[in-house]
Design a protein that fits this description.
- The structure is a homodimer.
- The first copy, chain A, is an alpha/beta fold.
- Helix content of chain A is 36%, strand content 24%.
- In chain A, the strands form three sheets. In chain A, strands 1, 2, 3, 4, 5, 6, 13, 14 and 15 form a nine-stranded mixed β-sheet that branches.
- The longest helix of chain A has 21 residues, at 291-311.
- The interface between A and B is large, with 71 and 71 residues.
């Protein structure tokens, strides 16, 4: 058996460093919210980098950017995304896109082109400042008008973003690909958690992606003077929201081990020192590995929210804004990833993903697999997000080995 | 004894209605943040209204706007303010300024001018979107550079506001008046609480103004991925802040009856569904009638804040942004207000003020008194803030009777 191919580790690093300069923040991370200037610049960089290496490029009706090697009716996709959360890090998404490009470079360089096209793809709006998995859902034909009507980031932001990117809302549906034309999907991503680092493993073989739901909770109380309104007569919307946030923490710890719930944002109105908040808007997200657990957790969270609202005579309005079902990944893809790691002498660990990824959209229409590499300190969605250059190269090499096996025969 | 003078109740109402149109919000209240367009327009309306009635006008170096009747070296001041909290109501401040004007109109009309000048004054920035009591502190000579360096609304907003109003920071100190030139101060204001309405009283005689302190609390945790970071490994700054807010509620109820504490604002960063908040900035205000109680309350609150921060391995930074000492008002002024109400056949009630007012700045340099009128439902700092036109006129009549007694002899 021939020695496994490797990607150009130095080139991979140089390209990741170049990309990290686009939308760089003073804190050392990046801010590439979907369709913002930095995001559009990063996507332009991707196309130019691919063209410079002699690859064909393509932008579909959902704004997904692709670089393509080889021909044929079917394509094996390798991807991730170049958008980020506000104040994000340099590896989330970017590593998978740049590694996909370098896999194509390595295959082209070795003259090892498989019988299907290889396509490195940068999906639109994975991280959800607008919708979340927008591009991959569109490609998988799973985008619904319900989601577009009430997107996570607000309808106005979505429409403004599409216009900035030169896209049309109706056109998004045209990005759907016939599943018969898809040969498979692989994604390299940082773990974004502490599991691999703790276990001393270099490669994570992702067996499934947990499900997640997002709700927006609006508490309506009564704005009033903070000096003249006795404590017992207040209808403080901010306190109802705060008490709910605190209750989620103990509820999950007590009754839902392994699940997570997060209050990521909370806005009080009018928001002055001397006015009791009349209104509080809270962003809630929770995740679990099984749909039944998600159902039970949602029910328990909403019981908490109603209890804290009633205790303060505050009205509660609940708006679902996102729903991602738990998704098992392809067993054959998992095996191929594990074998690729083994051939490279890397220690691999099978694990679920607590984070959502484009792979979960693709899993509905083709065999999909994911490779994780360790996150230092488990930190991500933060400027200090870090994966060693060595681990980045290991991940890209595993991606290369797995795609050659899966797309090759 | 002659029948007591009355203000022109219909004219008072018409002027209050005219003023309510300046900065009107769709919700039926007003938004006249200090030095914003609507605030500057309201102040221009005040000067024009006074000049149309033949009064002299004056704007001092702190932007305080005055209308003056009569001459002499000494002036008896009647005032309040035309700025508002964001999303405020139509009576807070405006009633006192318009009533002061109508007292001058009534005195002028009756040819009853007392031996000192009567000055209706609209103080700058009472409600604290910038500093709080800025104009009255300046006039009383109590403004300090400490306060201006770290104002409640932020240093940048203060400098921008001063520039919009054509004022200079150094000039603010020049607004100081020699106490020997002040004959006294009276202020009519809505109660902003439920006490008078509950007691069936028409007039509140304010015996003291409670003290208040404002602090900005910054919780520094660790932003991280909301899906991949187990609950037990988070350093969630938002939860620390929320737990503190909830703890203030029970602390005050349990150990500080009569005092109040309010978390009026809370901002989480970065503020996304799928990111654990790394930073939370909280606006805290608390009030009590005695300085010793304020000290004990502040200590107890900060113990709570440190406890909740430590429980979540979050760092805490505490910034004092405002401090108003409890202020007793003048006993002679209280008696004069009570007698004026009695002559008009109105039921008066002695009470402390839970809200801060310009009177507390003036009390340091001259005999100061305050008249309260009922707030329907105790609601204020809200578009639904309401005082009946009849109660407005009663308050203005009491103001008129009291100033004639206090300034007359």
């Amino acid at each position: 058996m021939a020695a496994p191919l490797h990607v150009d580790a130095a080139g991979l690093r140089a390209d990741l460093e170049a990309l990290a300069r686009i939308g760089a923040t003073p804190a050392g991370g990046i801010d590439r919210s979907s369709f913002g200037d930095a995001h559009l610049a990063a996507r332009a960089w991707f196309l130019a980098r691919a063209q410079r290496a002699g690859l064909r490029t393509r932008v579909d009706a959902a704004g997904n950017h692709s670089a393509i090697l080889g021909g044929g009716k079917r394509a094996f996709l390798l991807g991730s995304h170049l958008d980020s959360v506000p104040g994000g890090g340099n590896f989330d998404g970017a590593l998978g896109v740049v590694a996909a490009l370098h896999v194509l470079f390595a295959v082209a360089g070795a003259g090892a082109a498989p019988p299907v096209a290889l396509e490195a793809i940068d999906f639109t709006d994975e991280d959800g400042t607008l919708v979340g998995l927008l591009g991959s859902w569109a490609l998988a034909g799973a985008l619904t008008s319900d989601v577009l009507r009430a997107p996570r980031g607000g309808r106005e932001a979505l429409l403004a973003g599409l216009e900035r990117a030169g896209l049309r809302e109706q056109g998004l549906y045209d990005a759907r690909r016939d599943p018969a034309q898809l040969a498979g999907y692989l994604e390299l991503h940082i773990e974004q958690g502490p599991v691999l680092e703790r276990a001393g493993a270099q490669i994570g073989v992702v067996t499934s992606i947990v499900g997640s739901r997002s709700l927006r909770l609006r508490f309506h109380g009564e704005a009033n003077h903070a000096g003249t309104t006795p404590m017992g007569e207040r209808r403080d919307a901010g306190l109802a929201a705060a008490a709910f946030a605190v209750a989620t923490e103990s509820l999950v710890a007590r009754e839902f081990p392994g699940a997570v719930a997060t209050v990521g944002d909370l806005r009080l109105e009018p928001g002055a020192f001397n006015v009791i908040p009349g209104r509080a808007v809270l962003s809630l997200e929770f995740r679990a590995a099984e749909a039944a657990t998600l159902d039970r957790l949602e029910h328990a969270l909403l019981v908490c929210a109603r209890r804290e609202a009633e205790a303060r005579r505050v009205d509660l309005e609940i708006e679902p804004v996102g729903r991602w079902e738990p998704t098992p990944l392809d067993a054959g893809a998992c095996d191929a990833i594990e074998r690729a790691a083994e051939r490279l002498g890397l220690r691999a660990l099978r694990m679920p993903s607590g984070a959502g990824h484009d792979a979960q959209a693709l899993a509905g229409v083709t065999r999909a697999g994911m490779v994780f590499v360790p996150s230092v300190g488990g930190i991500s969605h933060d400027p200090r997000e870090l994966t060693s250059w060595e681990d980045c190269a290991h991940g890209a090499d595993v991606l290369l080995g797995a795609v050659l096996e899966l797309a090759g025969g």
